[in-house]
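Today's session is about reading a structure prediction critically. Students often jump straight to the picture, but the first step is always the sequence itself: look for stretches that repeat, for charged clusters, for runs of hydrophobic residues. Only then move on to the predicted structure, which in these notes is written as discrete structure tokens rather than atom positions. Here is the chain we will use throughout the hour.
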Amino acid sequence: MVNRALDYGFNWALYKLDDVGFENNNESIIFQQLRYFCEKHKDKKGYVKALYLHHLLDYFKETHLNIYDIDLVFEKFIQNKVIIEITDSEGKIINFQEDLEEIFKLVKENKKEFYEDITGHLE
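Below is the predicted structure for this chain, in token form.
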């Protein structure tokens, strides 16, 4: 099994939360990454969007779904891979639905270029 933390170059994220190391924590990697970015960069949502985009691109690579059924891929990505909201250290709920919708809209609006990039050829 591949260590996704290293795949994304997130070995920098071996931070500690409550003295629990990244490798020993039972929370999913995406949850830990979201919490890290929200705590470290409270006003910079670009980091969260980049994180979701990285996971979405990986999902397109590893899914057995028809990647040209973009709505289905987005639906399954949200069902199987995404955390929509987290609670920060102050107990505030942070919802990422708008960020995801913005990413999906951008991908849909640039479908031709997107598929060319991920498949390596024109469709």
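Discussion point for the tutorial: The beta strands are 16-17, 20-21, 85-87, 93-95.
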